[in-house]
Amino acid sequence: MLPTSKYPSRRQFLKGASLAGAATALTACSSLAKPNVTPATPANPKKAKNLIFLVVDGMCLGTLGLAHHWSLRNRKQPLNWMQLYGRDGLTRVMQDTASASSPVTDSAAAASAWGCGERVNNGSVNYSTAGQARTPLLSYAKAAGKATGLVTTCTVTHATPAGFSANVTSRGMEKEIAQQYLSREIDVILGGGLSKFNYKASIVDGVAQPAVDLRPAFAAKGYQVVNDRKSLAAAKGHSKLLGLFSGGHVPYAIDRGSDPKLKKVPSLPEMFQAALESLSAAQDGFALQVEGGRVDHAGHANDAAAILHEQLEFDDCIPIALDFMNANPDTLLIITTDHGTGGCQLNGKGAAYVESGPALDSINTFTNSFEWLQNRFKKTGQYSSEDFQAAMGFVPTDAQAAQIQKAIDEKVKYLSSFMTGLVEDQLWDRTAVGWTSTNHTSECVELFAFGPGASEIPSFIENYQLFGHMTRALGLKTES
C-alpha cells in the first residue's frame, strides 16, 4: 500500500531569514508577437554573430516538474522547456554548478564562472580566488564591436547579470556595479533596481556618501531611459536603453497581474522582446543575458505558487528566443539554470497519491504573494484576516494571527518568510509541495544549446568551462 502521510515539517530548515514568499492565482500566459527579423546569413554559419543566454535562476528539476504538470493540467500542453527535447539541433548538457569555495554555489560565483571562465568564491563577482579581477564576457563582446544587453526580473545590478559584466569583490556592491554599467556602456539594461542608480546621501561606516542619480549620465551617453511598460514600448528599437521598473526587484508576476498599481511593470517576455528589437540592428551582432531571477527568490521562500508562476513566465521566453534564432541562424542560444534553490518537489498526497493533482490545481486559487501581503501589513501596521484570506484562500488560526501581529509590531524584517513558515502545514495540505531547505542545492543542472558552437559543448561540463565555448563560438579574443 502506498504511504499517505503528509510531507514532514520544514521548520527544522528555517534557520535563517529568506526572501519573500508568494502564493499565486495562475492563468495561461498569452503569446507575444514574434520579433520582426529576417535571415541575413547562411543556414549553417560556422561562427555565431549573436549570443542569447537564457538563465532561470535557482530552478530545481523538481520546480521544472511542478510547472510541467501544471501546464499539462491547465494548458493541455507541455512546457516550452519540455518541447526542446524533441527539437532538431539540440545539444543537451549536464552541468556541475560548484563554486571555488563550496560544492553549493551562490548566484555570484555561478554567473562569474560563465562570465570569466574561472571558478570564484561565493559572494564575489569576476574576482579570482587570488583577488585578481577577471575580464567579463560582455567586455570581450564589446571589444569585438558587439552590442551588449542584460534583462532580469531582479535588480539589474544583482549577482547573475553582474556576472557577465562587472567586477566587484562583494555581490552586495550594487551601486558600484551600476557605475560600471555606465562606464562600460552596456547597451540595453532592463529590470528592477532604481534604488541602485538613484539614491540619497547617506553615512556608510562613518563616511559621508553623496546623493547620486545616474540616469542623467546614461541619457547623456545616448540612452533612452524608461520606467514603465508604456515608455518601454515607445522606446522600441532604440539602440541604447535603460529601463528600471521598480525600486528593488521586479514584483512577482502574480502581483503584476492582480494589483492594478503594478500593471505598468513589464513582464520578462516583454523586456526580452524589447531587448531583441534594440540589439538586433547591431552590425556586428550582440551578446544578451536574460534572467528569470525570482524563481530563486520563491525557492528561498519555499512558496509553491510563487515559484510556479515565475517558472511559467520564464518558459514564455523560450519561443521568443527560438523565433529569433530561426530567423537568425548565426545565433548561439543557451538555456540553463545556475543552481537549484529550496529542493522544490510536488509530492504524493492521499491514497495512491490521487490527491496530488487536485492539490496542484489548488494553486490557482492563490491571488497574491506573501511579499505583497507583507507590504500591506507593514504599511498599515495591522494584520488583516480579510486581506490574508483574499490573497491565500484560507485564514490562519487565531494563534497564528496573533503571532503575525506580534511580528508586525516587532518590525520583523522578513515578515513574508515568517508568515510562510508559520502556515506551512496549511500550505502543504493545499499544494502537496515540499522542500529540502530554504537554501541553494548542489544538484547538477541541465543546459540546452542551439546554433553555431553548440555541438562542441560536451555532454557533461563544469560551469566555468562554458565560457570558452561561448567565446570561441563568437570568435572573441580573450586573455587566455
Summarize the structure.
This protein has 480 residues and is an alpha/beta fold.
Describe this structure in words.
By secondary structure, the protein is α/β, with parallel strands linked by helices. The chain has a single domain, classed as Alkaline Phosphatase, subunit A (3-Layer(aba) Sandwich). Helix content is 36%, strand content 15%. It has a 10-stranded mixed beta sheet with strand order 9-10-4-3-11-1-12-17-2-18, sandwiched between helices. Strands 5-8 form a two-stranded antiparallel sheet. It starts with 49 loop residues before the first strand and ends in a 6-residue tail after the last helix. The relative contact order is 0.23.
Features of this protein?
18 strands; 36% helix; ten-stranded mixed sheet; two-stranded antiparallel sheet; alpha/beta; Alkaline Phosphatase, subunit A; 480 residues
Structural class: alpha/beta
User: Please, how many domains?
Assistant: 1
Query: Which outline best applies?
Result: globular
The rounded distance between the terminal residues' Cα atoms is 59 Å
Strand order of the largest sheet: 9-10-4-3-11-1-12-17-2-18
Radius of gyration: 22 Å
Low-confidence stretches: 1-42
> What is the helix content?
25-40%
According to CATH, what is the class? Alpha Beta
Q: What is the CATH topology?
A: Alkaline Phosphatase, subunit A
CATH architecture: 3-Layer(aba) Sandwich
Which percent band covers the strand fraction?
A: 15-25%
- Please summarize the sheet with the most strands: 10 strands, mixed
Number of helices: 20
